[in-house]
């Protein structure tokens, strides 16, 4: 009997499915039927308002679950909007599968509706990009894309589905079904490299473990926690490495980050790259003679920017267990009474006091530290924290602790703004299925919120109890107060005289939430903020948005090093 490939997917046997749970996208010609067919197989489909946000959401599912989320897009512009999400996923080393409809096969180069060289375009943003040559081969291509996205260094994959495939008929017996791919194989580091690394660590005077989002992705939390506890080593999480070992662990030296990086003589990199986030591992932010021990699943990563003293190629969880075995034999632990610990603890205390002083300032409008101080007191300890915006993200990272792995999602390796709402939607979908009592808190700068703000409608449509907090300084980096904006407007055309970083003062973003039936709060004082936080956390089934007005000139506390200038890094 002839069948339609997608129509028939619903009754395909479980062993032939690739354990995909979530699909995000925007339907239209020619992919609507694919979304309906996916739902029929039991895949949850979330219809978003922009493909970019849909793609961010799908990639966050990959990071949170270890199985790629799917982003389904229409041809041409739909696919092009998704490229931002693919690039972001690939840069973050997160698995993702993008399925794009494309113009019919017989229309190539004719100028068909939304015709574009999609497979070629996606090559730059993915590990694998292909179009099945026939209906029969679709299962094999899907298995390969899913497998490629999670094997080795995870990343994005693309499958192109020509429009004429969608309603084409074929005989059921000719479909070449492929079984679900095996879980990624777990690789161990060379034994000699493990012994060499253990020896360097045990001879260090000022050691430091750096825990990156690769460690979070590899579910290495238990083994890394044991390594920290057994060897009593100081550790520093990267932004999304936060929570692999809880931030409140006594060995966490995040509050002395610059000092720790600057003076460590031995650094163990657990799933973190020596890229801009870690100042390339080079002076003046690091010692010129720092000994780096690198643990990574990607061989090509080993030796980037700094020549390591030991390279442990393998899965972080497995390699950390190898290191633990080595240390169990020697019973080595780092002494707790060293000058290094003393220096780190002093710096931490000093920095924490400075932040606390800013947090307790009574003046209005509030500053960033005051906002996060109150948020810290009231937010649940086990919530997912999504964060973006320049100062909002940077200051929030230092002020808001993470106690669980994979519970922080932010602008990441690519520094992408606009990811927040898509990530929050993904986290809420995953939480609903796995940990229904956990809240998703999305803390956005006002500029960052603007990139994907219409996803508030998606949040309300799917009744996702996300709490969005906008830390609103009326601008990008810094903003403008209402009176100055008035003056500027009198002076002339805003396009000619307003600074490019200004946004409209006192914008009522909370009304975007109330427009769709969620709860919106506009707050200017610490008391109003506390009340809004309490009310929105109590209403645990309703999406809400708290728009917090802060001083447009509020900034980070004095830093030891200026941000991102190559010569000063
Ligand atoms: P961060 O931004 O936290 O510094 P990066 O994204 O720069 O982290 O680095 C993550 C690293 O983790 C990448 O180099 C990636 O290859 C590596 N990685 C991902 N999964 C694993 C795994 N299972 N085992 C080992 N390394 C991994
Ligand atoms: Mg802002």
UniProtKB/TrEMBL annotation:
Any one Pfam family match given in the protein's UniProt record, by short name: TPP_enzyme_C
Signal peptide interval: none
Enzyme class: lyase
Coiled-coil ranges (or none): none
Domain Thiamine pyrophosphate enzyme N-terminal TPP-binding, residue spans: 17-119
Primary subcellular site in the record, as a coarse category: other
Thiamine pyrophosphate enzyme TPP-binding domain segment(s): 391-548
Pathway: Lipid metabolism; fatty acid metabolism
CDD domains associated with the record: TPP_BZL_OCoD_HPCL, TPP_PYR_POX_like
Organism domain of life: Eukaryota
UniProtKB keywords: Fatty acid metabolism, Lipid metabolism, Lyase, Magnesium, Membrane, Metal-binding, Peroxisome, Phosphoprotein, Thiamine pyrophosphate, Transmembrane, Transmembrane helix
GO MF entry, a single one: 2-hydroxyacyl-CoA lyase activity
Name of the protein in its database record: 2-hydroxyacyl-CoA lyase 1
Species per Swiss-Prot/TrEMBL record: Crocodylus porosus
Taxon lineage: Eukaryota, Metazoa, Chordata, Craniata, Vertebrata
């Amino acid at each position: 009997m002839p069948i339609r490939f997608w129509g028939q997917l619903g009754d395909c046997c479980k062993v032939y499915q690739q354990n995909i749970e979530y699909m995000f996208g925007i339907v239209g010609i020619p992919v609507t039927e694919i979304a309906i067919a996916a739902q029929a197989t039991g895949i949850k489909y979330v219809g978003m308002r922009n493909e970019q946000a849909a793609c961010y959401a799908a990639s966050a599912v990959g990071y949170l679950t270890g199985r790629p989320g799917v982003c389904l897009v229409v041809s041409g512009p739909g696919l092009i909007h998704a490229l931002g999400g693919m690039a972001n996923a690939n840069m973050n080393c997160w698995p993702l599968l993008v399925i794009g409809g494309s113009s019919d096969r017989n229309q190539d180069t004719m100028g068909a509706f939304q015709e574009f060289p999609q497979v070629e375009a996606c090559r730059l943003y993915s590990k694998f990009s292909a179009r099945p040559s026939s209906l029969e081969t679709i299962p094999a291509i899907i298995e390969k894309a899913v497998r490629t996205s999670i094997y080795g260094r995870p990343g994005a994959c693309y499958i192109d589905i020509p429009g004429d495939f969608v309603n084409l008929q074929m005989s059921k017996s000719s479909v070449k079904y492929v079984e679900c791919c095996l879980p990624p194989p777990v690789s161990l580091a060379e034994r000699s490299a493990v012994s060499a690394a253990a020896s360097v660590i045990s001879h260090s005077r000022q050691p430091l473990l750096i825990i990156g989002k690769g460690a979070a992705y590899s579910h290495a939390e238990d083994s890394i926690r044991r390594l920290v506890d057994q060897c009593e080593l100081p550790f520093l999480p990267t932004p999304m490495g936060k929570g692999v070992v809880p931030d409140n662990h006594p060995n966490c030296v995040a509050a002395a980050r610059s000092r720790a990086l600057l003076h460590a003589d031995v650094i163990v990199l657990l799933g973190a790259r020596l890229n801009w986030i870690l100042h390339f591992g080079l002076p003046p932010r690091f010692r010129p003679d720092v000994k780096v021990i690198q643990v990574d699943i990607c061989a090509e990563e080993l030796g980037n920017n700094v020549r390591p003293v030991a390279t442990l190629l393998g899965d972080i969880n497995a390699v950390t267990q190898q290191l633990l075995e080595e240390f169990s034999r020697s019973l080595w632990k780092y002494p707790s009474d060293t000058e290094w610990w003393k220096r780190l603890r002093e710096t931490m205390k000093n920095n924490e006091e400075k932040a606390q002083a800013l947090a307790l300032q009574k003046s209005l409008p509030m500053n960033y530290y005051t906002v996060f101080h109150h948020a810290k007191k009231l937010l649940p300890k086990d919530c997912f924290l999504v964060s973006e915006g320049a100062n909002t993200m940077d200051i929030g990272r230092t002020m808001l602790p993470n106690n669980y792995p994979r519970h922080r999602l932010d602008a990441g390796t690519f520094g992408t703004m606009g990811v927040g709402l898509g990530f929050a939607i993904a986290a809420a979908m995953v939480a609903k299925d796995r940990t229904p009592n956990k809240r998703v808190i999305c803390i956005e700068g006002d500029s960052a919120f603007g990139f994907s703000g219409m996803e508030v409608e998606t949040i309300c449509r799917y009744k996702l109890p996300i709490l969005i907090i906008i830390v609103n300084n009326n601008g990008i980096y810094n903003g403008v107060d209402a009176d100055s904006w008035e003056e500027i407007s009198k002076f002339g055309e805003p396009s000619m005289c307003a600074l490019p970083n200004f946004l409209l003062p006192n914008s009522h973003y909370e009304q975007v939430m109330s427009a769709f039936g969620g709860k919106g709060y506009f707050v200017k004082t610490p008391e109003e903020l506390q009340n809004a936080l309490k009310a929105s956390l109590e209403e645990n089934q309703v999406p809400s948005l708290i728009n917090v007005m802060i001083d447009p000139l509020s900034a980070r506390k004095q830093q030891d090093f200026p941000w991102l200038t190559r010569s000063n890094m």
